[in-house]
């Protein structure tokens, strides 16, 4: 049974090696807290604020719940079950779907854009939050798009880098403190909000920048929330990898990711409608006054750092895995530091990035919704949960996941079809419907289903008969 | 260069050690159990229920 494995992609302490039983740290409760820690990040406030641009309170709450529960339930199944069962890093595991070279393509196309984009948004939000603090306490006059914001964003990136260096244990302990603290922040905002305005006043508040058609507005709001929830794809698997049971891998995505994201986004929605501004950094001082506002802004800054660390942890593991020996020999601190450089560059453009973040979000859904469909169908339906652990780490031709030159082109065809379905229904640049069906079925869900169906059909008809991919005949 | 070769060799050794452990007959790890079909059905049913109830409440039925 032993055999040897020629391997390109492992690392030592923070690598892609299979996790052993004694190294699994997360039960139901711990996994929930970790998920709460990353889900109640301030991006949730920003997302709630963005939802308020299109719909009012009642429709906004519905859009947030529907978008999140659908997206999270699909993404969790697509990435958490396999990585938890086999204890394998998510992008190593993805070799079973896309092949070794295919994962490298995936990482370079999807993950780099996603990780850099999101981290930049969070770093800029940190910059704006701290600028608000210094403007209020030290008499500075830093504008929302000034270089001062960029300077603070770079500080956030530097702190994130140090934390990332310490590895997942540092994130776990940080989230045990920050997770509950962020819930307290949510409660505080809610109390201050309702101390000033009644529910009926907030519920009557008009959306900030709606389109003309109410049904389009509602579905755009759902779509934005679907996009955000499908965007968990690169993150959740690498956390679930450390869970102790399949149940602990799955359900904390509802109790943690879904529930916490909904709470954070609904608060963001109500605050944005109440204060007439989508940007969370502009709410705190008007809402809580100087002292409470400053404390809240500082805490928002800390919360953003935990989110950046979580995003980058997954991204760096993926880069290391996908990059093979060249990346393997780069020290962890150097690799993570190098990957932060594009984030620093993007942080010099706060207006272009931060104020248009929902456009970026919609584009990511065009990639992650099909990706979720393909990976879920591959693991659950085609492989029935059975993967060859040893071949996940083998690069030689003839192994299960060699496919065609290391790429499973069928999975990529499915992704492209899913992307076309998305674009046929919805324009992520202008946020307008390309097809009347969009108002009924959204764009992400059909895109996810279409990609999954194409992957299933092509794998059954082409891959499995040819004996490629290690699919049971 | 020599260091990296040694490092790589150590990683491969560790990888093979771990794979030998997890692939050993009788290796006991509760995480390696398959999730049951009924739990998956329950998972998606729960999600759909939340979405449907929310949609119904929104439309004011």
Portion of residues within helices of chain A? over 70%
Count of runs of 4 or more consecutive helical residues of chain A: 22
Distance between the termini of chain A: 22 Å
Structural class determined from secondary elements of chain B? mainly alpha
Our count of helices of chain B gives: 2
Which regions of chain B contain 5 or more consecutive residues with pLDDT less than 50? 1-5
Shape of chain B: elongated
Keywords for this structure?
heterodimer; A: 473 residues; mainly alpha; 22 helices; disordered N terminus; B: 61 residues; elongated
What does this protein structure show overall?
The complex is a heterodimer of chains A (473) and B (61). Chain A is an all-alpha fold and 473 residues long. Chain A is built from 22 helices and 2 strands. A two-stranded antiparallel sheet of chain A has the order 1-2. In chain A, strand 1 and strand 2 form a beta hairpin. The two termini of chain A are 22 Å apart. Chain B is mainly alpha-helical. Chain B is elongated, with a radius of gyration of 24 Å. The relative contact order of chain B is 0.06. The N terminus of chain B is likely disordered. At the A-B interface, helix 3 and helix 12 of A face helix 1 and helix 2 of B.
